[in-house]
Amino acid sequence: MKGLVCKVCGYVALDGNKDVCPVCHTKNDFEEKEDAYKMPDFKAEKGESEKKHIPSILVVEKCGLIPGAGCIDVHAKVGEITHPMLPEHFITSITFYHENKFIGFMMLTPNVNPAAVVHLKDGTKGKIQIIENCNLHGRWYNETAIQ
């Protein structure tokens, strides 16, 4: 899928804003790429690569970190089949978006599981998008809606 990608850190600007990267804070250093990220094709039979890369999203209406705080947890796990986290092949980052706007970024190393969570304010509605980046197979996208 075509998109704007930060030349420094690889962040994808889903909202089209290329003034300042919200991850590395570089100014005006984006390039348009034809293959910025891969979209899931749920109508086709998924192969092993898709099963290891498409992020799964779980929305939990009750915050697990700060009970009583009135928040929603959004969990991102990379892969229906858990992605390997080896020094030579691993997920480098998971980026969270709400309605195409950046809301969170988790940088990963081979020493962790390929998953992350953000805590949204209670009452948040709309589309949540996730882009994960594999050091060998590029960026993969998925989305879900919070009703």
Give the SSE string. EEHEEEEEEE
**Alpha-beta content class:** mainly beta
User: Quick one: biggest sheet?
Assistant: 4 strands, antiparallel
Distance between the termini: 26 Å
**Oligomer classification:** single chain
Q: How many individual β-strands?
A: 9
- Strand ordering within the main sheet: 6-5-8-9
Mean model confidence by pLDDT: 92
What is the gyration radius calculated from CA atoms? 15 Å
Topology readout:
Blueprint: E1 3-6, E2 30-33, H1 48-53, E3 55-60, E4 71-78, E5 91-98, E6 101-107, E7 115-121, E8 126-134, E9 138-146
Antiparallel strand pairs: 1-2, 3-4, 4-7, 5-6, 5-8, 8-9
Task: Explain what the structure shows.
With 147 residues, the chain is mainly β. Helix content is 4%, strand content 42%. The protein contains 1 helix and 9 strands; from the N terminus they run E-E-H-E-E-E-E-E-E-E. The strands form 3 sheets. Strands 6-5-8-9 form a 4-stranded antiparallel sheet, with no helix packed on it. The protein has a 3-stranded antiparallel sheet with strand order 3-4-7, with no helix packed on it. A hairpin with a 3-residue loop joins strand 8 and strand 9. The longest helix is centred in the middle third of the chain and has 6 residues, at 48-53. It starts with a strand and ends with a strand.
Describe the structure in brief:
The chain has 147 residues and is mainly β. It contains 1 helix and 9 strands. A 4-stranded antiparallel sheet has the order 6-5-8-9, with no helix packed on it. Strands 3-4-7 form a 3-stranded antiparallel sheet, with no helix packed on it. Strands 1-2 form a two-stranded antiparallel ribbon.
